[in-house]
Amino acid sequence: MVTTAKYKSTVKFILLLLGAFIMLYPLLWMISSSLKPSTTIFREIGLWPSQLTFENYKLGWEGMSGFSFTTFFKNSFNVVGLSILGTLLSSSFAAYAFARLNFSFKKTLFAIMLGSMMLPHHVVLIPQYIFFNHLEWVDTILPLVVPKFLATDAFFIFLMVQFIRGIPKELDEAARVDGCGHVQIFSRIILPLMLPALVTSAIFTFIWTWNDFFSQFIYLSNPKLWTVTLALRGFLDSMGESMWGSMFAMSILSLVPIFLFFIFFQKMLIEGIATTGIK
């Protein structure tokens, strides 16, 4: 029996290891390609480069259009940081209103909000672009950041509503007896307790905003304002030479912030998903 159980465990381990390798193979190949000369990237089959070089990282960091990747990383962090701040503030306010306040058409508005999650982004793209163009916000980061402060992400509102509903209302009533209003109840009781939901929203916002290409491509045309995703596209030129090695090298570096952010807040992310009903 012990031998059979040990055999099954070994087989499971091997299968899991094989599955992990298959899933990680594209990333491993990209790391390997970033360390190869550009002329041998698509010629060599193996993962281990026959000629090791870090020239791709040097050339890639120098960037293009007169701007280094330092500028592009700063732009991405600016957009991501403001997006996280706006999402957490506006979504938490809206979630508290839906979870704790009583007002007219509350259920109807909540249903409309959930329905907006099913609306494809491309449906509202043209009206949004026309609106932002009238405001002269095109080619600035405002179209990417300002909507985050207006609670436009229904997913995060729903996530936080589910979390707040799990907090006992007796805490609100006890605070109200002590003379607290809705502002004090939200800031002193609800907000500290919903930290896992806030961290979960922050992680998702970070990943989605950092990886966003389409919206940034639509609104940002000045290379000075390019984010990392737009800068990576600049390495590929259909009419000239494509710098594959530099693109792979910078792609690896662009994954580092996401990886570190997830690692540091992984425990809170799991707790936030498990306690909000999203599971």
Q: What do you see in this structure?
A:
- This protein has two domains: 2-53, no CATH class; 60-274, MetI-like fold (Orthogonal Bundle), CATH 1.10.3720.
- The protein is built from 14 helices and no strands.
- The chain is globular, with a radius of gyration of 24 Å.
- The model has no long low-confidence stretch (mean pLDDT 86).
- Helix 1 (2-34) crosses helix 13 (244-264), helix 2 packs across helix 13 (244-264) and helix 3 crosses helix 10 (195-211).
- It is mostly helical and 279 residues long.
- The protein is 70% helix and 0% strand.
Concise structural overview:
The chain is mainly alpha-helical.
Topology (SSEs and partners):
Elements: H1 2-34, H2 55-62, H3 69-100, H4 106-116, H5 121-134, H6 142-145, H7 154-165, H8 169-177, H9 182-193, H10 195-211, H11 214-219, H12 228-233, H13 244-264, H14 266-274
CATH superfamily of the largest domain: MetI-like
The CATH topology of the largest domain is what? MetI-like fold
CA-based gyration radius: 24 Å
Separation of termini? 36 Å
Structural class: mainly alpha
Give the biggest sheet: none
Average pLDDT: 86
Strand tally is 0
The parts where pLDDT drops under 50 for at least 5 residues are none
Order of helices and strands: HHHHHHHHHHHHHH
Query: How would you sum up the global shape?
Result: globular
**Helix segment count?**
14
Task: Supply the CATH architecture of the largest domain.
Answer: Orthogonal Bundle
Overall tally of structural domains = 2
CATH class assignment of the largest domain: Mainly Alpha
Question: Residue share in helices?
Answer: 55-70%
Percentage of residues in strands: under 5%
Q: Please state the oligomeric state of the protein chains shown.
A: single chain
